[in-house]
Design goal:
By secondary structure, this protein is mainly β. The protein has no helices and eleven strands.
Length: about 120
């Protein structure tokens, strides 16, 4: 069974940091582009960042550019999202997904981890 499991979410104050991790079971991530997505209450899901299978190419949405960094460790079969300078508007359920073409096509999704930015 192909699964992705996110971890690292939680409650953090504005300006704080969190590091999300996405781990795979049943398959290896090194052949896939991996993306992070989020869905805030009452809003549509949006892409946050994506990293190519090689790790050479990344994409980041403008609203998190300079604050969020995606990385991967294929030896550990994980992808991380370092989130700094968090803002209340970053509050959402964060999902990772595996696919191709720099996340234009996605095949496997995780269950999500909640990030709440609040004082």
């Amino acid at each position: 069974q192909l699964q992705l499991v996110e971890s690292g979410g939680g409650l953090v104050q504005p300006g704080g940091s969190l590091r999300l991790s996405c781990a795979a079971s049943g398959f290896t991530l090194d052949n896939y582009a991996i993306g992070w997505f989020r869905q805030a209450p009452g809003k549509e899901r949006e892409g946050v960042s994506c990293i190519s299978s090689s790790g050479v190419t990344t994409s980041v949405r403008n609203s998190v550019k300079g604050r969020f960094t995606i990385s991967r460790d294929n030896a550990k079969n994980t992808v991380s999202l370092q989130m700094n300078s968090l803002k209340p508007e970053d509050t959402a359920v964060y999902y990772c997904a595996a696919g191709s073409a720099l996340c234009r096509y996605l095949a496997v999704w995780g269950q999500g981890t909640l990030v709440t930015v609040s004082s």
